[in-house]
Amino acid sequence: MATVLAASDLDRFAWPRGDGRQVPYAVFTDPAIFAREQERIYRGPTWHFVALADEIKAPGDFKSTFIGTTPIVVTRARDGQLAAWINRCAHRGAMVCRELRGNARAHRCVYHQWTYDERGQLRGVPFREGLKGKTGMPDDFDPGAHSLPPVRVEDYRGLVFGTLSANSPALTDYLGPDMLPWLDRIFHKPVVYLGCTRQYAKSNWKLYYENVKDPYHASLLHLFHTTFNIYRSNMQGRTLVDSRNGLHSIITTTPLADAETAGEYQKQDIATYRGGLKLADPSLLTVRTEFAEQTSNNIHTLFPSTVIQQIHNTLAVRQVLPKSAGEFELVFHFFGYADDDAELRKLRLKQANLAGPAGYISMEDTEATELVQRAVESCGADDGSYMAMGDEARDQGTSLITEHMIRSFWRGYRGMMGWGD
Ligand code: FES
Ligand SMILES: [Fe+2]
Question: Against a cut of 0.90, is the pTM above it?
Answer without folding.
Answer: yes
